[in-house]
Amino acid sequence: MAPKTTPAIEKCRKAAARLGWRHPHFYLLHDRMAYREDPSVGTMAVSADGLIYVAPAFVDRVTPDELSGCVAHEILHPTLRHFERAKTLGIIGSDGKIVAGREEDAKIWNSAGDWTINHALRSDGIQLPKGALEIDPDYLKTGAPIQAEPIYHWLKSQLKQGKSPSGMSDPSEGEPSPGAGCGVRPPSKPGNEQSEQGAGQGDQDQGEGQAQGDQPYGLKPGESWESVAAEARAHAMMAGKGSSALASILQPFNPTIDWAKVIRRGFNLAQVRPGAQFSTYSRISRRQGLDRATIRPGWYGGVPRVAIVVDVSSSMAREWVAQIVAETLGLMATFGTKAFLVTHTDQVCWSGWVKHGDRDAIVEACQHGGGTDARPAYARVAEEQTRFDALVHFTDCELPGKEWPENPARKLVVGAFGSGAENPYTPIPEGAEFIPCHTPAD
User: Fold this and answer.
1) Does domain 259-436 fall into CATH 3.40.50?
2) Is 328 helix (H, G, I), strand (E, B) or coil?
3) What region does 310 belong to: left with phi over 0, alpha with psi -120 to 50, or beta?
4) What are the tens digits of pLDDT across the range 207-222?
C-alpha cells in the first residue's frame, strides 16, 4: 500500500530533497522523520520522536527554498534533543508536560532553541521565511556559545533586568513565527518515549490523508539522537563550506554542572565516619629487638567506601555519565578510596567497582530507555558484602510512589538535577544532604 499523503506533505518531501542536494547530511536526519497535517500549529512544529506537524496554508504561502529551510529547522529540534534538554532544566516533567509555573520558561526555551537553529541555518546559506526568529545582536556581542542553554540563561537574565531582547517567540500574539511551538512537544505516540533514548522505533502513524501511513519514523533499534547527530556532524564536516555552522551546533553541549562537588561531599563524609579508625592491640615485632611479650595499643584505619548511583533515564544526558565517571576516578585517586557505581533506569544498567578503562563500557550500557525506579539500584548496592560509608545518588527525584528506597549506606547525598533541583517530586529522606545540580544560575 502506498503511503498516504497530501499536497502539503508532498511539498515538504520535495523541499527536503532539494535541501539534501546541497547539504547531504539532512538526508540522514530526514530518514527519521514523518509528516502529519495539522492546521492548528499555524506554521510547522515537531515532536520529540520526529513527527513533523504541517499547516497546509503556511506551506502554500512560503517559497520552495523557504520551505526547505523550515523542514531543516524542524528536523534539527529532535536531533538536538531540545525536548529532553528541557527536561534537564526542569521545564518539562516526567509526564512530558510543561511543569506548572514554568510556562514562561518554556517560551524562553523555545526561543533559545530557535535562535540556535536559525543562526546556524542562515550562516550556512539556508533560506528561512520572513519573520523567522533572529538572534539578538547583543547576545552575539557577549561571545558566549551559540547553544540553547547559554542563550536561555542569558534571555532569563535580560528579562529579570526588565530588558526586552529582540527575537522572542510568542505564538499567542498574532501569526506565529516559523518554528514557534517546537521543542516542547512530547513524543507523538504513547510509548514512543523509548525513542528518545534510542531503544525503540516510532510506531506507524495511520491517519486518513494525514501521515506517512505505512512508513515508521523515529530512531532505529540501538540508535540515540546523540549518535544520529554525531553521524550528521561528521557528514557536515566532510561537506565543508556551507555546513560549518550546522556541524558546530551538532557538537554535544556539556553544561557546567559541578559533578565533582557532589561526589566530593560523599567522599568527605566517608572519610570522617565514626569508627573509620579504631584501636587495636598487637605484639611488638621481633625486628624491633624488644620483648615480644609486650603488647602495645595501636590504631587501624579502614578504607572508606563510597557507592554512587546514577539515574540515566531520559532526564539525564548521556554525556554527563562520562563526566561523572571521570570525576569519580579522579577523586578515588585523591582520597585513596574505592567507589562502587550503579547506573539505572527502572532497572540496573551497569554495576561494579569503578576502575580506569570502565568509562566507555559504562556509557555504552546506558544507551537504552526505561522509566525511573531507584529500588533495583539500591538493592544492588546492598548485595555487596561491604558496608558503604556514603551513597551519592544523582537523580531528578521523580521516584515511584514518592518513596525513597531504604539507604544501604551510612550517609546519603542527593545530587538533584532537572525538576528535582527546583522542586523534588519525592521528598528527600531525613538526614540526607541535598545538593541541587544547576546549569549556570538562572
Assistant:
1) yes
2) helix
3) beta
4) 333 444 445 788 888 7
